[in-house]
Design brief:
Strand content of chain A: under 5%
Radius of gyration of chain B: 21 Å
Distance between the termini of chain B: 64 Å
Largest sheet of chain A: none
Helix content of chain A: 55-70%
Helix content of chain B: over 70%
Number of strands of chain B: 0
Distance between the termini of chain A: 23 Å
Shape of chain B: elongated
Order of helices and strands of chain B: HHHHH
Number of helices of chain A: 16
Oligomer: heterodimer
Structural class of chain A: mainly alpha
Radius of gyration of chain A: 24 Å
Largest interface: A-B, 44 and 44 residues
């Protein structure tokens, strides 16, 4: 399998080589983790401001409101509200979830789980993080420009994002930031794909890889193929804004010499729909592994799960049109896109059933990573089912642009990915930092997060079904929406509770990383994948000797196992 | 026996690294292909939804300079291919062919600048509508890639030494070569689509 022997690089000695300009995939993974957590905090604070405005219109935002919005006495102004939902969406999708799930765990896990010493191209890996930092700086710089940050929504549809809709520099910086982030993610994708293909340990076939690696690998493929599509859209949008080209300027037809704003939507969603899977596939893979590890059973239908994820990956590339039913698309196209979208239910149902099959009659250990994994099963189920209403043309025409859509995509993209990220963080903490997080507080964190999260997103779907339009600064000026004030207040309190519960996580995390004296064992969760065969935290060279793989990643309950152990290491061969 | 084994191991290492860099380069080319394919998709949308093309008020771009560009970039692909072959057999003439490629790359950029100047002379500017937007933006984007590829040619200077180790530099040569040829193919597609039709 491994195409060549990687060299063991020298241990870094200086602060700069160890923490800033490290070639080590593990350090880069941790850098992405800190980066993602920082943006998660910023994006989360923006979400609270949005929710505060909807629950308590005209009231100043507590504590920091007067500092942030002195001209309005602490009340979030309407133009800032538009910036907030734009930046919140952008930050959470591209700067929080992506770096945590793909940047942090992709970098950290892939070489360890396939038995490699590092990524195939360590320098490219280093560059990918620093380019991501540059992108983050560009994005946040928009907040300090005279007309403020981008305000055209995270999808940045023209004409909202053209010079007519957003005259400030903020939108240009947004577009550049996304383009630059695309370069960073592409660098990562090149590394992930090449590493998985060429550096698997001897004996490790594709179906011997943990499902986490499957998820991360498929994500990398989608990234490599579809990020350039968004890149092209961003490039043309920058040209429109800076050089005066006319690609997305509203106009009747090309014969009049003008462009077409809908073209951007096509380009955006050709990328944007696979992006959903770019975000969620790593979480699916991780959860598929964790359910097996904590149910102490082999993953049910592991091959089928891997193939289902692959099928979804392929289908995700041909369904983008369901985001655009309301753009007066031809009925022939809407029906085609609806059919294709519905087809995704088949592989989704297969691997969802496999998840249930894995935990069925398992000896479940309800540790925090398992709780978060079960949380993913629950919220993804809800998110997936509510997606059917939006895939269907007739119901989508009513629900489009309501809070139902917001609730749906937060269930699928935010909730399940966030919970998957937490599951992964709690699970691989010992291998990353050499310590365990406090289990009691982890469980408290889980339950409050779950309650808060469902309060928010379920509430959003209810108000959306009742017709509450998204993106409105104060929807309650419309008489029919006045009665939705109490439920909006409920959603906001749920958001506040969920937001506050993240402080528990942060304290637990920071304490475990910097202050905890008690070291974790090499294999505290009793799991057989390759990363648990080496010391905790992982040494800089990963494996002294490249391991030889003898079995799959989910081998539990082999009757030939001796002693108390119910799991088999991937390097072990039993009769 | 041990010598045979170690040479076989060395060969395996060499092939392994070749395959690794080749996979990475393929992924890179897929990403660039998608970028240009998206641009061409945009062009296709405007082109097929338009009753007349170029749009009213515009004339077709004079084919002279784009044709020269096509010939130049095709020639540069040939010279690079020649350099690759000579590099592999450690022939000293490789310097000459890499030199030709560098010169042709520079010539291509000069023809692009002449094309942009020519359009300006005729009063066609990028902000004048969708037609000039396409012509300028696409050629800018392609030219930016050619500049990068041209700079990468200088990364091949160490390969010009007489006693150079082919094994240690072959991946560099082949990968830059793939990128160079790829840009030629992209230009050919752009020439056929946005200039000829």
């Amino acid at each position: 399998m491994a195409f060549y022997e990687q060299h063991i690089h020298d241990a870094p000695k200086t602060f700069l080589s160890k923490y800033i300009f490290s070639y080590d995939h593990k350090v880069i993974g941790k850098q992405f983790l800190w980066y993602g957590i920082l943006f998660l905090g910023i994006g989360g604070m923006m979400a609270l401001m949005i929710r505060w405005t909807l629950a308590f219109p005209g009231q100043p935002f507590p504590v920091i409101g007067n500092f942030l919005f002195p001209s309005t006495g602490g009340v979030v102004p309407p133009d800032t509200y538009a910036m907030l939902f734009t930046m919140h969406g952008t930050i959470m999708i591209f700067y929080a979830i992506t770096p945590i799930l793909i940047g942090a765990f992709g970098n950290y896990l892939i070489p360890l789980m396939i038995g490699a010493r590092d990524m195939a191209f360590p320098l490219l890996n280093l560059l990918s993080f620093h380019v991501a930092v540059l992108s983050g700086v560009l994005l946040l710089a928009g907040l300090f420009t005279p007309l403020g940050a981008a305000a055209g929504g995270w999808t940045s549809y023209p004409t909202l994002s053209t010079l007519i809709g957003s005259p400030g520099v903020g939108q240009t910086l947004w577009t550049l930031a996304i383009f630059v982030l695309g370069i960073s993610s592409t660098m990562g994708a090149i590394n992930y794909i090449t590493t998985i293909i060429t550096l698997r340990a001897p004996g490790m076939g594709y179906f011997d890889m943990p499902l986490s690696v499957w998820g991360l690998g498929l994500t990398a493929i989608l990234n490599a193929i579809f990020l350039p599509v968004l890149g092209a859209g961003c490039l043309l949008l920058v040209f429109d804004r800076v050089f005066g080209t006319a690609f997305f300027l509203a106009g009747a037809a090309a014969t009049s010499g003008t462009g077409d704003p809908i073209l951007f939507q096509h380009v955006f969603w050709i990328f944007g729909h696979p992006e959903v899977y770019i975000l969620i596939l790593p979480a699916w893979g991780i959860v598929s592994d964790l359910l097996s590890f904590f149910a102490r059973k082999p993953a049910f239908g592991a091959k089928a799960t891997a193939l289902s994820m692959t099928t979804i990956t392929i289908l995700s590339t041909v369904v983008y049109g369901h985001h655009m039913y309301t753009t007066q698309m031809s009925p022939l196209l809407t029906q085609s896109f609806m059919t294709l979208t519905m087809t995704i239910s088949i592989p989704s149902a297969i691997f969802f059933a496999n998840w249930l099959g894995t935990i069925w009659k398992g000896s479940i250990r309800f540790h925090s990573p398992m709780l978060f994994s079960l949380g993913v099963v629950f919220v993804f189920g809800l998110g997936g089912l509510t997606g059917l209403y939006l895939a269907t043309v007739t119901t989508d025409l009513y629900l489009h642009d309501t809070y139902f859509v917001v609730g749906h995509f937060h269930y699928t993209m935010a909730a399940s990915v966030l919970l998957g990220g937490f599951a992964a963080t709690y699970f691989w903490m010992p291998k990353m930092f050499g310590t365990m997080m406090n289990e009691f507080w982890a469980k408290v964190h889980f339950w409050i997060t779950m309650i808060g999260l469902n309060g928010i997103f379920m509430g959003m779907m209810v108000v959306g079904y009742a017709g509450m339009h998204r993106r409105l600064y104060n929807p309650f000026v419309y008489e029919f929406m006045e009665r939705m004030m109490p439920i909006n207040t409920f959603i906001t309190w749920s958001a506040i509770i969920m937001g506050l519960s993240q402080i528990i996580f942060v304290i637990n995390f920071v304490h475990a990383v910097f202050f905890k004296k008690e070291k974790a064992g090499d294999n505290p969760w009793e799991v057989g994948t390759l990363e648990w065969t080496i010391p905790s935290p992982s040494p800089h060279y990963n494996f002294k000797e490249i391991p030889i793989v003898k079995c799959g990643p989910h081998e539990f309950g082999n009757p030939n196992l001796t002693g108390e152990r119910d799991f088999q290491y991937q390097t072990e061969e039993l009769a | 026996m041990s010598t045979v084994l170690s040479s076989s191991t060395l060969n395996k290492e060499r092939v392994g690294r070749q395959i690794t860099s080749s996979i990475a380069m393929t992924v890179i080319l897929v990403t660039f292909s998608m970028l240009f394919a998206s641009l061409l998709l945009g062009f296709t949308v405007f082109r097929i939804t338009s009753e007349v093309w170029p749009p009213m008020g515009f004339e077709r771009v004079d084919l002279f300079l784009p044709t020269i560009s096509t010939i130049v970039i095709a020639l540069s692909s040939f010279t690079f291919w020649k350099y690759e072959r000579l590099f592999l057999i450690e022939n000293s003439e490789k310097k000459l062919w890499l030199g030709f490629t560098t010169l042709l790359g520079l010539s291509f950029m000069v023809t692009q600048m002449l094309l942009w100047r020519d359009l300006h002379t005729k009063g066609i500017y990028v902000q004048d509508g969708i037609f000039p937007s396409i012509i300028f933006s696409f050629t800018w984007t392609h030219a930016a890639h050619v500049v990068v590829a041209w700079l990468l040619l200088f990364y091949l200077v160490p390969t010009l030494k007489e006693d150079v180790s082919v094994e240690s530099l072959e991946n560099r040569v082949f990968n830059i070569g793939k990128f160079w040829h790829f840009l030629g193919v992209v230009w050919l597609i752009m020439y056929i689509t946005i200039f000829l039709f």
